[in-house]
């Protein structure tokens, strides 16, 4: 289990993690989220992923399916974000040679 402490919010990932709860909390705290394309090189993420899940996402990308945006929070480094939901999508895009990904970012950050 991993915890990221940022902006007085503790986010816990692991079994049973629900991104809808995270989105609701971020919207309440910051008045909403905005979408932005980010370069994957500017993300910190967990690269320990389930290969079968990544392969399935790669197949979806190849078929032209639009995947949901990842959810990120800013780090203390300028223009660097921590992925709190979407590590498998990041891996799938990288394996497909795509180096930008759509992300949800808290307003005012």
Notes on the protein architecture:
The chain has 109 residues and is of the alpha/beta class. The protein has a single domain (2-106), classed as Conserved hypothetical protein from pyrococcus furiosus pfu- 392566-001, ParB domain. Helix content is 30%, strand content 33%. It has three helices and seven strands. It has helices at 19-30, 51-62, 87-95, and strands at 2-6, 9-13, 33-39, 43-44, 70-74, 81-85, 100-106. Strands 3-7-5-6-4 form a five-stranded mixed beta sheet. A two-stranded antiparallel ribbon has the order 1-2. β5 (70-74) and β6 form a beta hairpin. α2 packs across α3 (87-95). The longest helix is centred in the first third of the chain and has 12 residues, at 19-30. The chain is globular. 24% of the residues are buried.
List keywords for this structure.
109 residues, alpha/beta, Conserved hypothetical protein from pyrococcus furiosus pfu- 392566-001, ParB domain, 5-stranded mixed β-sheet, two-stranded antiparallel sheet, 3 helices, 30% helix
Side by side, the strands of the main sheet go 3-7-5-6-4
Q: Superfamily at the CATH H level?
A: Conserved hypothetical protein from pyrococcus furiosus pfu- 392566-001, ParB domain
Strand-residue fraction? 25-35%
The fold-level CATH name is: Conserved hypothetical protein from pyrococcus furiosus pfu- 392566-001, ParB domain
Radius of gyration: 14 Å
Low-confidence stretches: 1-13
In the CATH scheme, the class would be: Alpha Beta
Overall pLDDT: 85
Overall tally of structural domains? 1
- What global shape is seen? globular
CATH architecture: Alpha-Beta Complex
Count helical runs.
3
Element order, helices and strands?
EEHEEHEEHE
Number of strands: 7
Major sheet: 5 strands, mixed
Q: Could you say which structural class the secondary elements and strand pairing correspond to?
A: alpha/beta
Helicity, as a percent range? 25-40%
Ends apart, CA distance between termini: 25 Å
């Amino acid at each position: 289990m991993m915890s990221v402490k940022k902006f007085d919010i503790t986010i816990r990932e692991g079994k049973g993690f629900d991104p809808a709860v995270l989105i609701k909390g971020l919207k309440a705290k910051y008045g909403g989220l905005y979408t932005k394309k980010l370069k994957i090189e500017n993300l910190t993420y967990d690269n320990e992923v389930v290969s079968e899940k990544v392969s399935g996402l790669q197949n979806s990308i190849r078929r032209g399916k639009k995947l949901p945006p990842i959810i990120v929070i800013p780090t203390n480094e300028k223009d660097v974000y921590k992925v709190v939901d979407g590590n498998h999508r990041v891996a799938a895009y990288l394996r497909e040679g795509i180096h930008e990904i759509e992300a949800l970012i808290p307003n005012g950050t």
